[in-house]
Structure formats: C-alpha cells, structure tokens
Design a protein that fits this description.
The structure holds 2 protein chains of 2 kinds. Helix content of chain A is 70%, strand content 0%. Chain A has 9 helices and no strands. Chain A is mainly α. By secondary structure, chain B is α+β, with helices and mostly antiparallel strands. Chain B is 60% helix and 11% strand. In chain B, a hairpin with a 7-residue loop joins strand 2 and strand 3. In chain B, helix 1 packs parallel to helix 3 and helix 5 runs antiparallel to helix 7. At the A-B interface, helix 2, helix 3, helix 5, helix 6 and helix 7 of A face helix 1, helix 3, helix 4 and helix 6 of B.
Chain lengths: 190, 198
C-alpha cells in the first residue's frame, strides 16, 4: 500500500503554521497527507467505519480550530495522533463504559524455542490481521503506532499520555500475545 | 543492560526508531545472543506483515468537503459579512424558486401518471418506451452525519450519481416514487438545498 509520503517535520509544521492563519488550502493539503493513516488508526480501535469517520472529522476540526495550541514540543503527527487517540478512547468509554482499559495480561507459557523457529519459516501475513484484532485495545494501539507508523516509544508515550516504560512493557506484552496467537493459528504450538 | 530491557527495546530497534546510544546497545547484544537474534528475526517478520496490512477505504474527498462546509458555516456564523447577508437573501429567492419548481414537477408527474392510466389517451406513436428520470441536486447541512445521509438515501431508494463536489453538492436519482421522495426531502432538516436539474 503506497501512502502519500510527507516530510514529517518540515512540511507538517509549515502547513500547520499556515492553518493557524486560516489558510484553507494548507488545511486541505494537510488533510490529504494524513487522512488515510489517521482513519486507519481510528478504525482499528472502533471497528465501525461511520464512527471512525466522525472521530476523524472531529480530529481535523480540532486541528483547524486549535492549530495555535501546537507548541512544537513534539512532531505534528504525534500531536495529531494524540488528539485522535483521546477522542477515540472517549467514544469507546461512552459506548462500553463497563469495559476496563487496562494492561492486565493473562500470563501465557514461556516461548518455546522450537515453536519460534517454526514460526520464522512460515508465512504469517494472513494471520497477522486476525491476531492484531485479538490484542487488547491498548496493546493494539502500541503495536499499530510502533509497527505501522514506525514511531519511537517516546512519541507513543506522548500520544497515549503515559510513561515511556509503560509503552515498552505494553509492546513487550503485545509482541508476546501476537507470537502466542500466531503459533496457535499456524499450528506450531506444542 | 538486562536481558528484559533489551527485549523491550528490540521492537523499536527493528523499526529503526531508537536513539543512537540505545541502538548501539541492542546491536552489540545481538552479536552474541542467539535467543535475541531469533527474537529479532521474528519481530522483523512481524513488522513487515503489519506494514503490509490493507488500508481501509477512507472518507477521502467526501470527508474534506464535509470539513470545508463546516468551516465555511462557522465562519459565516462568527463573522456575518454584508455580502453573506446578500447571499442569504439570494438563497431565499432560490429556495422559493426551488419549492415552486418541485411543486410543478409533482403536479406534472401526477398528471402524467394519471393520464397514462386513462384509456384512449395513449400517444399515437404508441406507449412511451423510456421515461427520463430527473436528476436532483442536494446539499446537506454541516450537522448531517454520514450515517444519516446514507440512511436517508437508502430509505428513499436514491442513488448518488455524482458528488459530493467541493461545495458538498450531490447529484442523485430517485429509484422509485419521486413524489414521495421529494415530499420527504423537502421537509428533512438535514437537507440544506434541493434542486431539480433542467
């Protein structure tokens, strides 16, 4: 999948400065650069295209209305994903208030070296989406931002408003859960 | 650095997102730790597989048009410009014109259907083989959500043939019962403008 390739810092910051001045052309350019990635990120959490469209709409509106609140302490994309993340979490909490969004993990057995060897020799492409969907929400978000967006753990920590070590731990658990799920579905589990 | 810490840094090493110092630590450990090497290859494979995910179809230009419409509306709301007031007056004229045109169309459609059912009034050239379906132009209020728009169009069996344009204009055709569809569209609060093409 080929995405528009922004030069993340320079281009986004220039566009954001223009947006601050009410430049609608810059806003349209900004939207076209990030809309697909942002929608993908939101949709993975909400699993509902209509709701994801609404959250994305609200996110871009907030960027338009409050572009001046970007302080330049992070990348523009980090700021943008952070707005989308918090809006999505608010929506999820309203939809499913009984759900607890925590890091509690059910401990799985230790990795078996043979199983990992077998996993390395198989094509995992088709099972990855299934296993990603099985991850806990917060682990899924970290996995998505780290492996799809290639974001550093520091940026992910800013987006999710939590300590950097928490992100590393979540990624560690997400990886473990993915491995476990893939082993199970590829029949390599002993 | 402990093995656990290295394991936690490894995914970010794979994506090349660690700073130089951390990356060097992981690189050095990888040279001598075979378990870490296996983990590295697995993560590399997983990274590639995640990257290869199909992106869903996003709102695209539709979403942008919706945003632009809302921005335009909020600008009008906050800064009423004399030209905007003039435009509103013009809009009122066009609304009245559109309603009159719609009523004319409804009357014509009724007459046509009534006459078509009446014996002895068939055209000398035989029954009409093809009835042209009028094309409507619609715009929605900025508050209208995509779900509402879809629901409304599906309920009235309306198909989008073009749009939305940069100004949020849709060109649509009614699949059946134009009269009923027009009656519903005219009173629906989500419809901002309604116009039948010549």
């Amino acid at each position: 999948m080929v995405l528009p390739q922004p030069k993340p810092i320079d281009q986004a910051q220039i566009l954001l400065k223009a947006i601050c001045k009410g430049d609608e052309t810059a806003f349209a350019e900004f939207y076209r650069l990030y809309e697909k990635r942002l929608y993908h990120f939101i949709l993975l959490k909400l699993n509902d295209p209509l709701e994801a469209s609404d959250i994305m709409h609200e996110t871009f509106l907030e960027i338009w209305n409050h572009a001046d609140r970007f302080e330049g302490k992070s990348k523009v994309t980090t700021w943008m994903f952070s707005i989308a993340f918090h809006k999505t979490m608010d929506r999820l909490r309203r939809k499913k208030p009984h759900l607890v969004y925590s890091d509690i993990m059910i401990e799985t057995e230790d990795d078996q070296p043979n199983a990992l060897t077998q996993l390395l020799s198989q094509d995992i492409t088709h099972q990855v989406k299934f296993c990603l969907d099985k991850l806990k929400d917060l682990h899924h978000t970290v996995m998505q931002l780290a492996f799809f967006e290639d974001m550093p753990y520091r940026d992910i920590a800013m987006i999710m408003s939590c300590p950097e070590n928490t992100i590393k731990t979540r990624m560690f658990h997400a990886k473990k859960a993915m491995k476990h799920c893939l082993q199970k579905h590829l029949g390599t589990e002993k | 650095m402990t093995s656990d810490k290295l394991q936690q840094l490894l995914p970010f090493y794979v994506t090349n997102s660690l700073d130089t110092e951390e990356a060097n630590l992981v690189r050095t450990a990888l040279l001598s730790d075979t378990d870490l090497q296996q983990e590295y290859y697995f993560l590399k494979k997983l990274h590639l597989a995640v990257k290869e995910q199909e992106l869903p179809i996003s709102p695209g230009e539709f979403g942008l048009a919706r945003l632009q419409k809302e921005i335009a509306k909020s600008r009008q709301d906050t800064r009423p410009h004399p030209s905007a007031i003039k435009l509103n007056k013009q809009g009122l004229f066009w609304k009245i014109g559109t309603i009159a045109a719609c009523m004319g169309l409804v009357f014509q459609t009724y007459n046509y259907q009534y006459l078509a059912k009446t014996d002895g009034l068939t055209a000398a050239s035989g029954p009409v083989a093809h009835q042209e379906i009028p094309i409507l132009q619609l715009t929605f209020t900025p508050e209208a959500r995509e779900k509402h728009i879809r629901d409304l169009l599906l309920t009235l069996n309306i198909s989008i043939i073009e749009g939305p344009s940069a100004l949020g204009i849709y060109r649509v055709q009614v699949g059946s019962d134009l009269e009923k569809a027009m009656a519903v569209l005219e009173i629906d609060a989500r419809i901002e403008t309604l116009h039948i093409e010549d």
